[in-house]
Structures are given as structure tokens and as C-alpha cells.
Amino acid sequence: MRSGRSTSPGGHTRVVVLTADDGFEQSVRTTFGASAQIDLEIVKGALSGRDSIAVDGATVVVADLEAGDDAELAALERFMARIPHGPPVIAVTSAFDGAVARRLMQMRVADFLVKPVAAVELVRTCARVAKAPANTELTEAQIFTFLPAVGGAGVTTLAVQTAMLLLNSNPRGKTATCLVDLDFQHGACADYLDLEPRLNLGEIEPRPERLDRQLLEVMLSHHASGLAVIAAPNRPAEMRSFDPDVVTRLLDLVSSHFDFVVFDMPRTWFSWTDSVLLGSNRLFIVSEATVPGLRQAKQLVEAVRERLGDGPKPQVIVNRFAHKLFSSGLRRGDIEQAIGEAFVACVPNDYALVREAIDRGVPLDEVKPGNKITLQLKNLILTQAAGKAGKEMAGGARKPRLSWARS
Q1: Which among 52, 74, 198, 268 has the fewest CB atoms less than 10 Å away?
Q2: How far is C-alpha 207 from the geometric centre of its chain's CA atoms?
Q3: What is the extent of the structural domain holding 274?
Q4: C-alpha–C-alpha distance, residues 131 and 3, integer Å
Q5: Mean per-residue pLDDT of the chain
């Protein structure tokens, strides 16, 4: 969250509300007017019609805007840029979709609400964002996303082992890495780790604004290693498609509370897939060492580049690669030629090791320390994670992604 918040003299809380909606103004006055500890300031008019707004000394700013108006969103963006170390801002809109969510998160708003806003929800949201410690630096999660090019390529194994590597490499301790299984129909992360899946999107879909840190904790599963896991119970006979706003809100909340987030993606493309991929720091497409697998990986790389534009560059991992001398199978050189510059690594095949780790619900290193699969992933994942962290420390500002302001 942002620093720069304050309270009025005498321990009062100062709430500044920007709105052109008479009905919302009246609701806000009713909500906050009864408290002698809250100093409420209403700034009337559309956000786009103002050159500057004084919010010095404010504890929380509530910006009511018309989300369908590009001028309003642009005005909020300028306003946020002028107060990089100012009070937290809560955006309130009458309409909401995935595109609006992305723009608001890119601006690093503290939270957003959709009208009609219940009085108790507004109060809780203001209280929550105001509680964040002052003078803390904005940080964001590093997000590693694994997307299958073909079925059965071993995406879940790579995602689980990557999460374990990041967990054990984190200097902040073993509570800041989260593995998220986004295959709501056939997900296997919980099974691989012998955990009970606790995510219930059906419960929060009717009221996504209920999803906060407290509810997230209820829906987290925890492995003995300390890894946090978000996974839903499998529904193999159902085609499960959830409101993209619910999924986006969930993922934003996850990425705002963990240092590392690993996404295990389904092969099917959903309405929220673009948002997840755009928010990733590293995007890995996982294939197998077969001609059809390489063809599909290359096609998926081209499709992702076309859809994401300047987003993260997809990198291809060929999993379970085994080449024997004098065999007629695909060689590494053949793979490099077929995939081109998007090719990044071959992960060696050790089916017996992977099977035992899955059956026991433990990381590969616990079964066989120093195994070739873990060594390859360490070289691929930890080198990139360390390189990115070093660049950010030396280079200053980060490019906004799915994970935003966090204290």
C-alpha cells in the first residue's frame, strides 16, 4: 500500500470522496456522517473535469468514476501518477469488466467496488486499506505461469517443483510462495501434494466483493513444506467456466500477498486466460519431445504473441526429454530448429522418480536429492528469478503486472 496517509488532529480519520453522483454522495454522507471520528470531505464533479485535487493529509481517497468513460479512467490514471506516495485510493464504478480491472490494477488502486455499494462494505474496505503500515515500499509478486501445449506434458509436475524451489529460495521464509491450480475441471496440484482442495469459487461468485485476505486464508491449503496452495475440488463431468471478474479478483488478491506465485494453467483457453498471461513475469509453454507436440508448441507460441502483443514472451520447455546415442529420436538440435528462439530448455525424463514423489506427496529432492530434473529447473527458474530481482534493485520502477500494490 502507499505511504503518506494520515489522520486529522485528535486522531480523526480523514476520508476524501470524489464523486459526481448525487445518490452516492448522499449514501457516503449517511455512512460516515454518524461518526465523530471521521472527517469527511466531498469533492463534487467528474474526475475528468479537474486539473488537480488536494488530498494531502487524507487517510483514504474514494474515487467514484464512470468506468465506461475513457476520459474518466485517464483522469484517474493521471491522479494516481501525481500521488505515488499518497493515501490509498479506492475506485468505485457502476460497471465492471476484465479490461477495467486490468486498468485499475495497473494504476495500483488499493481496491475497487461496484455500485450499489453497501454501507458496511465501504466502511470495511476503507478500514482495511487504511490499516496497511505507512512508509512501506510498493512490491509485487514474481509470477511463473505454466501453460500446456499438449495433454499429458507434465505441466503440474513442473509447476509443483518450481513452487517448491521458489519456496526454499525465498529469503523472507517459507510463507511467501503460493501455487495456484487454475484447472478447475481436472486440476491435480492438490492430489500431487496429498492436500484437500479448499477453493470454492461457487461460493464467492455471487458476491466477489466478499473476497478478502480473511476469506482467502480459509480457502488456502498448506503443505507440510510451508507451500500455500489454492485448488478447487475436481468436477471432471462439468465444464466449469467462472465469471472472469471473480477469477481476476482472486488472482490479484493472491499476487498481492505472496512474493512468488506459480500458476498451473488448463489447456483450454477461457475468458480470463489473457489476464493471467499478461500478468506473468515468466510464461512457460510445456510440450513433449514429439513432432506433433513441437508443432503445437510452436503454434501456441505464435498465438500467444499475437494475443499478448508486448506482454511476456512465451518460452518453450520440452519435458521428459530422453535422447540415447545412435537412436533415431529427436535430438536437442532438432527441437531448437523446430521451435526457434522461444525454446529455453529440455527437462530430462525420470518417470520412476516423479511417480514416487507424486505418490508420496513430496518434492522430488526429498526422494532423490540432487536429481537431474531439479537441477535443470534450478538453472532455469532460480537464475531468472535472481536476475529479475537484481535488475529491479538496480533499475528502479517495475512494469505493472497482475500483482499490484502490497505492503
Answers
A1: 52
A2: 20
A3: 142-395
A4: 11
A5: 81
